[in-house]
């Protein structure tokens, strides 16, 4: 058919993973085609990481004013909702423009504006009837909001991450469905901007935390800003120009809300891709089975990267997976295993939550540090939470951490890098810790690990912290 195209590597989806895959395949010498129906920039910049962090930054400014009295400073915040949303969109648009400019800088002829579906004989069919034949294909279609059917009746009041940042003003009363990173980040930020927020989840955990101690702390911290109803099932209808939610289970009640933010997960965007025609093995959700070190689906010439594979739905992994998938697609049928990062997820609440490496398990030793009485955190009136470090029983080699404490977003990196470099608790204690910092708050956890594994503290490492450490 006229307009049919051929290339070495076709990439479906021009988000973070797809753009990385295209760059990596082209760098490896492949001819590429990048297919997307919109080319409107990445999810991260438009409706994800960046606008959510902008809302959180505004909430942080309001909270700083609110807490000023602790330091003897008299101030009261007056939140101008429209101004908050204007600044958010202005900055967000600049980030989004940056990702669109990146797409526009692609060499001529690479962009194919269309929705793609797998067709016969390994070709891709485009909506306009054209076909693409490629030696290898990368699926990088991302994810999309899950709005359960229970909320159909209040459709006009439902917000998702794709619409909430378009609000002209902050709502008066907001329900948030879902206590994952999205619901907690935006719920807490909205509350600190003066919105009355009720957060509901069908499960009894926040951010999927199964550790009773840290999970309990997170609940207590979140309950300062949010009305929490966990372990409930929810029914919705409309009332008095708003949405009425009724919940029952661990608690029961009902209330009217101006808007309902549904943050109930973002499943892979696989619908309409025609994967059933590919012969790939699919899991119970319809996601192709793939090798995490090559990003290859089975023994096929199809690769997958980013949120669509439902593995590690965070930005730096989308980018890394894209690079691996692109390089292997270019070299197909020769594929190489790549080293993957230690898993790291960060939730940008206050305090933040960072989860790194291996989860708690019976075969690991743990050391904890309490940040409710930590020096630097107290100085700044943000003493809260704790750190749990996990290590190998033999030598105290660091393997994982859960940090719910001020600075956890930075400390989480420190620990991820330490784990990647194979450092032990003793190795970290042999390094300098400036005083007074949040970093030195980790020392009790490191010392506890050394004590349990029978490693003597390194020379020069004091067993007691400085006053206020
Ligand atoms: C509110 C929110 C906050 C977040 N905050 C953070 C954070 O702070 N830190 C962090 O690391 N991560 C964060 N994330 C996660 C991060 O945004 C994602 O992991 C990342 O954007 C995934 O990139 P991707 O390339 O897989 O998908 P996307 O960027 O969504 O790209 C997918 C592309 O595929 C295209 N597409 C879909 N179907 C087809 C088709 N059939 N044919 C052609 N093209 C198609 C789409 O148009 C889109 O351009 C956040 C997510 C959300 C929603
Ligand atoms: N800082 C970050 O990295 C960050 C921030 C925000 C979002 N994200 C990403 O965005 C994606 C979406 O985030 P999310 O928090 O929506 O997903 P999630 O899967 O982490 O959490 C969804 C929550 O919704 C609950 N839920 C699902 N259906 C429900 C129902 N019918 N009723 C009540 N509760 C229900 C689940 O129990 C769960 O707690 C994730 O991939 C996440 O990684 C990342």
From TrEMBL:
<dbReference type="GO" id="GO:0004148">
    <property type="term" value="F:dihydrolipoyl dehydrogenase (NADH) activity"/>
</dbReference>
<dbReference type="Pfam" id="PF02852">
    <property type="entry name" value="Pyr_redox_dim"/>
</dbReference>
<protein>
    <submittedName>
        <fullName>Dihydrolipoyl dehydrogenase</fullName>
        <ecNumber>1.8.1.4</ecNumber>
    </submittedName>
</protein>
<keyword id="KW-0285">Flavoprotein</keyword>
<dbReference type="InterPro" id="IPR001100">
    <property type="entry name" value="Pyr_nuc-diS_OxRdtase"/>
</dbReference>
<feature type="binding site">
    <location>
        <position position="53"/>
    </location>
    <ligand>
        <name>FAD</name>
    </ligand>
</feature>
<feature type="binding site">
    <location>
        <begin position="178"/>
        <end position="185"/>
    </location>
    <ligand>
        <name>NAD(+)</name>
    </ligand>
</feature>
<keyword id="KW-0560">Oxidoreductase</keyword>
<feature type="active site" description="Proton acceptor">
    <location>
        <position position="435"/>
    </location>
</feature>
<dbReference type="InterPro" id="IPR036188">
    <property type="entry name" value="FAD/NAD-bd_sf"/>
</dbReference>
<feature type="domain" description="Pyridine nucleotide-disulphide oxidoreductase dimerisation">
    <location>
        <begin position="345"/>
        <end position="444"/>
    </location>
</feature>
<feature type="binding site">
    <location>
        <begin position="141"/>
        <end position="143"/>
    </location>
    <ligand>
        <name>FAD</name>
    </ligand>
</feature>
<feature type="domain" description="FAD/NAD(P)-binding">
    <location>
        <begin position="8"/>
        <end position="319"/>
    </location>
</feature>
<dbReference type="InterPro" id="IPR023753">
    <property type="entry name" value="FAD/NAD-binding_dom"/>
</dbReference>
<dbReference type="Pfam" id="PF07992">
    <property type="entry name" value="Pyr_redox_2"/>
</dbReference>
<feature type="binding site">
    <location>
        <position position="307"/>
    </location>
    <ligand>
        <name>FAD</name>
    </ligand>
</feature>
<feature type="binding site">
    <location>
        <position position="265"/>
    </location>
    <ligand>
        <name>NAD(+)</name>
    </ligand>
</feature>
<feature type="disulfide bond" description="Redox-active">
    <location>
        <begin position="44"/>
        <end position="49"/>
    </location>
</feature>
<keyword id="KW-0520">NAD</keyword>
<keyword id="KW-0547">Nucleotide-binding</keyword>
<dbReference type="InterPro" id="IPR016156">
    <property type="entry name" value="FAD/NAD-linked_Rdtase_dimer_sf"/>
</dbReference>
<dbReference type="InterPro" id="IPR004099">
    <property type="entry name" value="Pyr_nucl-diS_OxRdtase_dimer"/>
</dbReference>
<dbReference type="GO" id="GO:0050660">
    <property type="term" value="F:flavin adenine dinucleotide binding"/>
</dbReference>
<keyword id="KW-0274">FAD</keyword>
<dbReference type="GO" id="GO:0003955">
    <property type="term" value="F:NAD(P)H dehydrogenase (quinone) activity"/>
</dbReference>
<comment type="similarity">
    <text>Belongs to the class-I pyridine nucleotide-disulfide oxidoreductase family.</text>
</comment>
């Amino acid at each position: 058919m006229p307009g049919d195209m051929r290339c070495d590597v076709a990439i479906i989806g021009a988000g973070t993973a797809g753009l990385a895959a295209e760059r990596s395949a082209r760098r490896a010498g492949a001819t590429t085609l990048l297919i997307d129906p919109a080319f409107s920039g990445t999810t991260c910049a438009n409706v994800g990481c960046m606008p959510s962090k902008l809302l959180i930054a505004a909430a942080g400014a309001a909270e700083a004013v609110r807490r000023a009295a602790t330091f003897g400073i008299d101030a009261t915040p007056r939140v101008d909702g429209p101004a908050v949303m204007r600044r958010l969109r202005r900055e967000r648009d600049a980030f989004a423009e940056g990702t669109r400019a990146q797409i526009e800088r692609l060499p001529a002829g690479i962009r194919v504006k269309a929705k793609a579906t797998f067709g016969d004989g390994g070709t891709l069919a485009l909506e306009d009837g054209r076909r693409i034949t490629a030696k290898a294909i990368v699926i990088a279609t991302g994810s999309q909001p899950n709005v359960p059917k229970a909320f159909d009746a209040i459709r006009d009041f439902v917000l998702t991450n794709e619409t909430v940042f378009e609000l002209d003003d902050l709502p008066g009363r907001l329900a948030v469905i879902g206590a994952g990173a999205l619901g907690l980040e935006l719920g807490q930020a909205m509350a600190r901007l003066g919105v009355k927020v009720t957060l509901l989840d069908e499960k009894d955990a926040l951010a999927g935390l199964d550790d009773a101690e840290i999970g309990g702390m997170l609940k207590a911290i979140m309950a300062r800003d949010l009305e929490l109803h966990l372990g409930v099932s929810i029914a919705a209808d409309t009332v008095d120009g708003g949405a009425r939610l009724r919940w029952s289970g661990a608690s029961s009640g009902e209330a009217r809300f101006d808007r309902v933010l549904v943050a109930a997960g973002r499943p892979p965007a696989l619908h309409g891709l025609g994967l059933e025609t590919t012969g790939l093995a699919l899991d119970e959700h319809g996601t192709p089975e793939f090798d995490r070190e090559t990003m290859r689906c089975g023994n096929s010439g199809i690769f997958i990267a980013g949120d669509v594979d439902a593995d590690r739905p965070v930005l730096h992994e989308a980018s890394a997976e894209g690079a691996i998938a692109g390089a292997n697609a270019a070299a197909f049928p020769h594929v190489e295993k790549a080293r993957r990062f230690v898993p790291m997820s960060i939730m940008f609440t206050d305090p933040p939550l960072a989860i790194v490496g291996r989860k708690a398990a019976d075969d690991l030793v743990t050391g904890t540090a309490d940040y409710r009485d930590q020096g630097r955190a107290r100085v700044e009136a943000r003493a809260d939470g704790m750190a749990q470090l996990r290590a190998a029983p033999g030598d105290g080699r660091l393997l994982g951490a859960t940090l719910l404490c001020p600075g956890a977003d930075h400390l989480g990196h420190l620990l991820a890098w330490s784990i990647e470099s194979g450092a032990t608790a003793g190795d970290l204690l042999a390094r300098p810790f400036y005083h007074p910092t949040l970093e030195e708050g980790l020392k009790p956890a490191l010392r506890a690990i050394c004590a349990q594994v029978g490693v003597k503290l390194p020379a020069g490492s004091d067993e007691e912290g400085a006053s206020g450490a």
